[in-house]
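Page 42, continued from yesterday. The earlier attempt failed because a stray header line got pasted into the input along with the sequence. Redoing it now with the clean sequence only.
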Amino acid sequence: QVQLVESGGGSVQAGGSLRLSCAASGSIFNINAMGWYRQAPGKQRELVARIISGGSTNYADSVKGRFTISSDNAKNTVYLQMNSLKPEDTAVYYCNADITTTWNRRDYWGQGTQVTVSS
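This time it went through. Structure tokens are written below.
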């Protein structure tokens, strides 16, 4: 079994910064990719940023230049540094991981962490 535990959400004023963390644990053979998605009220869940094994990254256009995704492979942890936050960044942020275990390969999701940006 694999678990993703997120931390780092909270409330901040526009222009501020937050750093999200997501640690994967359990029967992990290989982490193929990790990323962050977000879902605002009344909207669909959308990709924010993703990093694949090897270090390649991709970002939603709306966060390019403001957010940075990184990973610590030794800790099975992914980070999302969010700078110059805007009210439209307000959402529940979910960690996602594409993980191969002894038995299979599938996506896993964290429980979500709230990010609120006030104007």
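Notes: The mean pLDDT is 97.
Reminder to self: strip header lines before submitting.
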